[in-house]
Amino acid sequence: AQKITQTQPGMFVQEKEAVTLDCTYDTSDPSYGLFWYKQPSSGEMIFLIYQGSYDQQNATEGRYSLNFQKARKSANLVISASQLGDSAMYFCAMSTNYGGATNKLIFGTGTLLAVQP
Amino acid sequence: DTGVSQNPRHKITKRGQNVTFRCDPISEHNRLYWYRQTLGQGPEFLTYFQNEAQLEKSRLLSDRFSAERPKGSFSTLEIQRTEQGDSAMYLCASSPNSRSYTDTQYFGPGTRLTVL
Asked: What is the pLDDT of residue B61?
């Protein structure tokens, strides 16, 4: 079964500090992609970062980095130097080739991040 | 701005009424997805189009739901005889046509449906 698990319903972080949001995944497909999205209160899903299952290096995009540990099936998002505007819901998602070429995303339940001044 | 757009942004309707939502994907993207997100949950896949062909439908998509993408550009999602359980955010996403699990899906702002 394809599954994404996010065990942190909510987190607080002080402004300018780093924070790690946890994500574990389950799939039997050797080819998959892992994505992180940010969803502010307005509702739009904003793409942050992507990691492919065959990528040798951890992905980075500005203040976002992905701590990819394939053996442990984890893909944690690290946000450095948190800003007040980072307060939002964060979703981890996975896409695989399992079942055909649809490449639909499977999402976790999300982590609500609150950045405190 | 050439991102994914959705209309309307909000829809309030009475139980039993029909509603229709529209999604305009990024212009060069051939793949279009619809997802539904209920309160406190992540989005769940509803259906997928490759150009004008609807290639996959989730079991979540009951026979009251129908989606079209007539010319391979914009898509519509219609819900007939709405029920209170249909209240949710309906999200549309598009991605390039490389048939790869690595493609990033870009989402629109969503349509929030409230059924009274």
From this structure: 86
